[in-house]
Sequence to fold (531 residues):
Amino acid sequence: MKYILLVHHSKDSFEAPKDPADAAAGRAYGEALHAAGVFVAGAGLVSPQNATTVSVRDGKRQVQDGPYAETKEFLAGFVIIEVPNLDAALEWAARNPSAARTSIEVRPLGGFYFAAAPSSSAR
Amino acid sequence: MSESATDAAIEAVARNAYGRLVAYLAARSGDVAGAEDALSDAFGAALHRWPADGVPQKPEAWLLHAARNRLIDAARHAQVRKKSEPLLQLASEAEEVMTMHPTFPDERLKLLFVCAHPAIDLAVRTPLMLQTVLGLAAARIASAFLVSPAAMDRRLVRAKTKIREAGIPFRVPDPAEWDERVVYVLDAIYSAYTAGWESAIDEGSTHHALAGEAIALGRTLVQLMPNEPEAHGLLALMLHCEARRAARYAREGEFVPLDQQDPALWSRPTIDEAEKHLRVASAFKRMGRYQLEAAIQSIHAHRAVTGVIDWKEIALLYEGLVRLAPTIGAQVGRAVAFAESGDVSAGLIALDAIPASRTANYQPWWAARAHLLRRLGRQAEACGAFERAASLTDDSALRAYLLEHAAQ
Fold:
């Protein structure tokens, strides 16, 4: 099964200067995901201040500065992994260095719309 | 055996076989609800027919055969075919397993770990176990947990959907995670035992709506994990409490506190069974919360033999319990044990050391405090505390007992 690990951070932690040790831990985590053969996709995101929101209403495109909703916590990064079950996904989520500072939401991918994408391996 | 005892034994066999089959099918399909649906009619038929026709030699085979017809019917309808075809195939495999092996594989342990998985809402873990492992009706579970049947049904459906959709695996946890995961299972079973009873001064309280079912789960657990001392400890605790059922209320339904109960009314065989499990547990030399709680009840039970309660020993056990799991119940128990072993002031100090935010609505704290205040001669405060305790229980017998003391 494929799962997405959603890493949420507060605005403050987005703005805080990056600690080199954190960056190293993040790289090591990424390497471990690859080495285990469970990595599907993943990235860190820039600050929500740099987000732009788009919607289409009555055929007209509406563009707005800022994230979809003003909340205390923002999506800061994600990893998509392919593992046998939830227990394995939870284990990888716990190994994410961010888990020590914030919470990570683990959700199975529905896979409906993009099921035919060439990169997706057979289940 | 009396007719009702025979019926109860037959029902136990049916529930046992049902739970095994649900576990077998769900462990392979990941679909608890589908497994239950497939078996529900067969289970109902078994409960209806076995008392008259006798228990079949292979209960699982009988249930599976009855369920298979339903699955075949279902597979004829195009809409449900997709869902029931894999189950139909699993049912065929299960029938094959049965012809080859004398006993049907028992995967209920995996099912118990799924029901008590940390990813499942805490409030639904116990209901989920009762429904999937014992085949208890949702309405019965709902009434024990004091919620509407519709609300309970929604919770159960949501949990089963999550098991399937989130991919919660049917597996026995690794040694590294065993201790942590076992606690979830133990707690869920104990919560079935205490469901519907507002814990009084001690375990001597009310409804016990699901006590029998909780003990059945406890016995199953001991079979499934014979080397886990806490499983034995939990069963011993529940059996000790259960042994006192007849002594808890006087003839007119008045509440009788544990230390004033007539030991002649306690069930000797149930106490013996509890003691047996406590001995098995202690041989593993791995102390735990449930073993300590059972040991405390064991000392109370010993009054039947010696006529006295060793409160010093109880205080020691509570000390261990507070260190292991500093619940408010353990803290109140320890304070009472201090007082009963001679130092009433120390007991009161221990009670008052518990933060007020935790005690405000905790009836046993108020009742314990009231008793200690009275023994220290602080009448007015004692009356107030008894009244406060009475206002915090929904057990009418206990309320009457507390109000009577308030008026003294």
Q: What stands out?
A: Chain A has a mean pLDDT of 87. Chain A has one domain: 2-108. Chain A touches chain B at residues 1, 3, 84-90, 107-108 (CB under 8 Å).
